[in-house]
């Protein structure tokens, strides 16, 4: 291990520690750490740029622009009022219904798109009910990542594995949807118990909610129709990814461009709503991970994990599930899974083990493990950034205290499922 290895590890550990203890804004410190990786020679500028996952960045920017335009139609207020009335104005009922909606939307849109669409709804609901939005924000993060596990397009890691291995949309539904349903039900039930005292409103607020008419929330019918048309095209693009081979960033940015073209005469106002703070955080994080990846740190950890299990199918598969969960919580699941894909292929070539269970274990561990920290998955960072704008930011430790136990329970359920279905 040369000097670059220890420089990269030191920069990453110090940067991560500062993020954990929330002493400097996470975007500032991630960019500072990324810059040090370049200045100290761990990677050069070209490698840093190559390390940024522009498919993720493009997806985020494209969907943020679409949401920033669509929300002006009153679409989100409509969804919020509909959900509130369906729950009879009872915060607990609304909380349960909202969690189910987030999980379903995440499976069939993708988790980043879902949180961008649903977080504005959270603030409309909680403002009218006069309750704390944080339980809903936490629920949105957890259920978006859990629900996104179920399908090929639900989470960026799924797209990476699906493309690399040749897994179809139906493969994901058959193998992952059953366990996602179980974990969703368990997670919502536990959250309801944790936040039992917070999910209470006044009879006056409840009565006021029931008087609202969802249709009256639509303030611009023409804009709504245009927004739904473009959103429909984008969703169609996501669904037909395996046929068209268009990347999700291309689809999202094409949709954003089209919606800007047909609705927005002052693009500055639309682009100002993009969560640029989160975008730059991701850019810095990708460069940081590129640094430790280039010096071989991620591969060393992953190989050591595999080495400890030998050629035992059960141990290797379970180790991949839990190892990927831990690493995804630390380094963000997108760059981690990009490293694990070739590694698992090598394991199969060297040992002859069945890789099928390993891919599903990898995805459960990676997608759900990302729930454990506020930077573990794209959706987490986006929700926290949107919450910060409204004065409801989670700090790192506060979030972990709530999310780690729930993530652990979900992973235990996932482990039992993998063992009973594929390894017995």
Throw out a few tags for this protein.
single chain, 424 residues, mainly alpha, 22 helices, 79% helix, globular
Explain what this protein looks like in three dimensions.
With 424 residues, this protein is mostly helical. It has a domain of 225 residues. It contains 22 helices and no strands. Helix 1 packs antiparallel against helix 2 and helix 17 crosses helix 19. 50% of the residues are buried.
Q: Could you tell me the radius of gyration in angstroms?
A: 21 Å
Kindly, what is the distance between the CA atoms of the first and last residues, rounded to a whole number of angstroms? 40 Å
Number of helical regions: 22
Which stretches of 5+ consecutive residues score pLDDT under 50?
none
Give the helix level as a range of percent.
Answer: over 70%
Shape: globular
Largest sheet features: none
- Helix-strand makeup class: mainly alpha
Topology:
Layout: H1 3-20, H2 26-39, H3 45-51, H4 54-70, H5 75-86, H6 91-108, H7 111-129, H8 134-148, H9 156-165, H10 169-194, H11 203-211, H12 221-239, H13 241-244, H14 248-263, H15 267-272, H16 276-294, H17 297-309, H18 313-331, H19 333-351, H20 356-369, H21 378-389, H22 396-423
Task: Give a short overview.
With 424 residues, the protein is mainly α.
């Amino acid at each position: 291990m040369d000097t670059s290895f220890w420089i990269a590890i030191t920069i990453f550990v110090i940067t991560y520690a500062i993020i954990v203890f929330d002493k400097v804004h996470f975007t500032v410190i991630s960019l500072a750490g990324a810059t040090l990786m370049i200045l100290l020679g761990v990677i050069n500028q070209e490698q840093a740029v190559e390390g940024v996952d522009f498919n993720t960045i493009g997806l985020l920017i494209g969907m943020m622009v679409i949401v920033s335009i669509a929300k002006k139609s009153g679409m989100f207020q409509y969804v919020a009022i509909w959900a509130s009335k369906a729950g009879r104005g009872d915060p607990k009922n609304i909380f349960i219904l909202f969690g189910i909606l987030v999980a379903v939307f995440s499976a069939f849109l993708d988790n980043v798109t879902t949180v961008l669409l649903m977080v504005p709804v959270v603030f409309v609901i909680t403002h009218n009910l006069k309750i704390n939005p944080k339980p809903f924000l936490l629920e949105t993060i957890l259920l978006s990542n859990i629900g996104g596990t179920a399908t090929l397009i639900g989470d960026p890691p799924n797209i990476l594995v699906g493309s690399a291995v040749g897994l179809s949309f139906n493969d994901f539904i058959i193998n992952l949807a059953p366990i996602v349903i179980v974990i969703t039900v368990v997670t919502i039930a536990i959250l309801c118990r944790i936040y039992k005292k917070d999910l209470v409103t006044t009879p006056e607020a409840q009565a006021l909610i029931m008087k609202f008419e969802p249709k009256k929330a639509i303030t611009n019918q023409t804009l709504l129709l245009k927004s739904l048309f473009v959103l429909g095209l984008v969703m169609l693009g996501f669904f037909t990814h395996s046929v068209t081979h268009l990347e999700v960033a291309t689809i999202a940015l094409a949709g954003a461009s089209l919606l800007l073209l047909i609705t927005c005469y002052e693009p500055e106002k639309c682009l100002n709503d993009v969560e640029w703070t989160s975008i730059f955080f991701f850019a810095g994080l990708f460069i940081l991970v590129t640094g430790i990846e280039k010096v071989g740190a991620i591969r060393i950890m992953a190989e050591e994990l595999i080495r400890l299990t030998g050629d035992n199918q059960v141990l290797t598969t379970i180790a991949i599930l839990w190892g990927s969960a831990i690493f995804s919580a630390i380094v963000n699941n997108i760059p981690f899974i990009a490293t694990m894909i070739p590694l698992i292929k090598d394991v199969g070539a060297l040992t002859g083990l069945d890789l099928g269970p390993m891919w599903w274990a990898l995805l459960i561990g990676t997608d759900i493990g990302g729930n454990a920290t506020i930077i573990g998955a794209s959706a987490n960072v986006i929700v926290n950034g949107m919450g910060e704008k409204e004065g409801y930011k989670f700090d790192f430790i506060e979030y972990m205290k709530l999310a780690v136990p729930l993530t652990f329970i979900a992973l235990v359920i996932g482990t039992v499922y993998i063992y009973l279905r594929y390894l017995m």
